[in-house]
Amino acid sequence: QLVESGGGSVRAGGSLTLYCAASRFFPCMGWFRQGPGDRREGVACIGSDGSTSYADSVKGRFTISKDNAKNTLYLEMNSLKTEDTAVYYCAGANWVRRDRALSADEYRYWGQGTQVTVS
């Protein structure tokens, strides 16, 4: 079970941190987002070894991390832009191809999402 929290409304240039409480971590954990009328897109992912990948649109602004002791996944979002507005989802997978680490199709386990609105 994956449960996201931390979403909300923020002004452009502001910051938010999203949280995903997991009943257990999967080897690959990711954050995805879906704006109105958009396809679900990968934002960031982290492997069991701590390796990370980011979408070009968020590199340098977003940071994915996890706390294994708390089974919590984080997404720290800084310098938010209006185009970051979306529902953000936490997801898990037992294995993904490295070149498809940010592809939603690779992830089987999903949270319910949390809304982030940047104005």
List the helices and strands and how they pair.
Elements (H helix, E strand, L loop, with lengths): L1 E4 L2 E3 L5 E7 L5 E7 L6 E7 L4 E3 L7 E6 L4 E6 L8 E8 L15 E2 L3 E5 L1
Parallel strand pairs: 2-11
Antiparallel strand pairs: 1-3, 3-8, 4-5, 4-9, 5-6, 7-8, 9-10, 9-11
Rounded radius of gyration (Å): 13 Å
Shape: globular
Mean pLDDT: 96
Q: Could you give the order of the helices and strands?
A: EEEEEEEEEEE
* Main β-sheet description: 7 strands, mixed
Provide a short characterization of the protein structure.
This protein is 0% helix and 49% strand. The chain contains no helices and 11 strands.
Overview of the structural elements:
The protein is mainly beta and 119 residues long. It contains no helices and 11 strands. The strands form 2 sheets. Strands 2, 4, 5, 6, 9, 10 and 11 form a 7-stranded mixed beta sheet that branches. 31% of the residues are buried. The model has no long low-confidence stretch (mean pLDDT 96).
Jot down its keywords:
119 residues, mainly beta, 11 strands, seven-stranded mixed sheet, four-stranded antiparallel sheet
